[in-house]
Design goal:
Hect, E3 ligase catalytic domain fold; alpha/beta; Rossmann fold; 4 domains; 15 helices; single chain
Amino acid sequence: MLTVAYCRVSTEEQAEEGSSIAGQADKLRVYAELHDLGDVVVITDPGLSGKNLERPGLQRLLEMVGNGHVGHILVWRLDRLSRNLGDLSALADVFLAKGVTLHSFTEKLDLSTATGRMFYNVLGSFAQFYREQLAENVRMGMHQAIQQGRWINRAKTGYDMRDGVLVLNDQAPVVREIFRLRAEGLSHQRIEERTGVKYSTVRLILQSRIYLGEVLYNGEWFPGSHQPLISLEEFEAAHRGSVPGRRRLSREILSGRVRCGLCHRLAAVEYRQNGEPVFRCKHRGQGCAMPRRAAWALERAVLLGMRLLGDDAALREAIRCEIGTGGAQGPKGRATGRADARRDARVAELETKRRKLLELHYADKIGSDLYAEEELRLRQQIDLAKSEQIREQEALRQADDVVQRFEEVAALLAQLNVEAVWKEATQDERRVLVHELLEEVALFPDHLEVVVSGAPRLNVTLEEVGVQNRGVRGGT
């Protein structure tokens, strides 16, 4: 059986206490020699916190203990193992179960007695108290810095950090130029071409309020003490018409809603010589033969799809039959309930087997290798059953959401004269209508597919919207 010395020290502790890894190892070797514990195997975790057990050295030690290779464990202090009382208690149970004797150089312990275990827990409580108090002091210091308006992270583009204070550097004019160009409507790609600043950095700059003279803490912005680079008006101008995660609005109402049905890429807007807008697959000429389609034709298809959902009661009922079977009260819902009951029973059965396996292991009726192998198999089966249940519940929730969304849209369209409203609406009002009711328009060589929110795809022929079908090689 091995005698293992476990040594850990964080960078801060080494600087404050001078208790290095090498120093701990030397003292523990002397301790082992005085107590006739034999040769010492040293395992270290340098520069790692004791807040949890996720340390490579400690995991290696636990693996050796689990394999029954360790007789004695030596530590400088208990908090070298962990500064978490729960983790220390769990480690004590593991060591006792494996017959491992724990030795602390600075504390006298005997975990085989009630008094020794109580002393062990008291020392663990002090170790956890030290860690939590240290964390509180750090948070207090950060909060105080924020109250003083100081930036507590790495300096952003346009600033340097000097003596804990942000000061403008030679990149400040470039940052101002980025905000100015964005306010003029340039894309991130065009701004990169004009300024030489990478696309990703441009996005980060535009998203940060540090340039308004503010500082960030816990996801919130507070007044800072550094000099702002731009005014609030300039910041708002750069974000006008922009929503996080969505491209700036195009002149075309359907922009961002049109997708190629062949290669599934979003279609881009192009303009013919006469100024007429058309939608074109971005991959056209590079492997995709999808013809261009005029914007007016796609708008007609959208209006036709909305009008059909509003006027055709038989179509609405057919859609309800298709999507309603997945509801919680429908056949699929009842089938899902029975499947959940069977799965719950299966999980309970596996959990029972797992408990019995653990009891056999603690009773020394099965070895560690067989226990580990069988426990892993049972745990995987349990995790698989639970994950399947979560996926099915999420699918059922989404199906219910689709049903609810369809009923809302269908009720609205049944009361709405879509074509009359569209004719009288402004461009902005049309854009709102499309944004609220339309999911997608898919382009195909011989037809279009309109997806109204909450409804299945509706096929629209080219003839229905007044487009001549010229085949794949042509197109309107």
